[in-house]
Amino acid sequence: MEDEIFFCRICGKQLNTVDEIELNICNACKIAKEKTTGSADFYCWACGKDMHEKSEIAQGVCHNCKASINRKIGISPVKH
Questions:
Q1: Are 14 and 6 in contact (CB under 8 A)?
Q2: Exposure class string for 11-44: b at 16+ Cβ within 10 A, else e
Q3: CA 43 → CA 48, 74, 77, 79, distances in Å?
Q4: 48-71 burial, b for 16+ CB within 10 Å, e for fewer?
Q5: 7, 9, 49, 77: least buried by Cβ within 10 Å?
Q6: What pLDDT digit, counting tens, does each position of 30-46 carry?
């Protein structure tokens, strides 16, 4: 883990603090993002998009990424 280098998912700058690494976003981008979009607590693990729907948050992945992953592994969506 000590040899790993972490980069901001928005600007690509190397992350230096534990807080930055935990959020995968540098402090400069975090501040800029909060000013423009407000603070979000949940992000898609695949693309980093802010998630606001309960179904996305529960699974940890946004609908677009979930559909893409399902297509790649060949799972058809279940219709009720």
A1: yes
A2: eeeebeeeebeebbbbeebbeeeeeeeeeeebbb
A3: 5, 25, 23, 26
A4: bbebeeeebeeeebbeebbeeeee
A5: 77
A6: 877 766 554 457 888 88
CA-wise closest residue to 51 among 32, 31, 37: 37
Local structure of residue 26 (DSSP, 8 states): -
SS3 content of the chain, % helix, strand, coil (to 5): 40, 5, 50
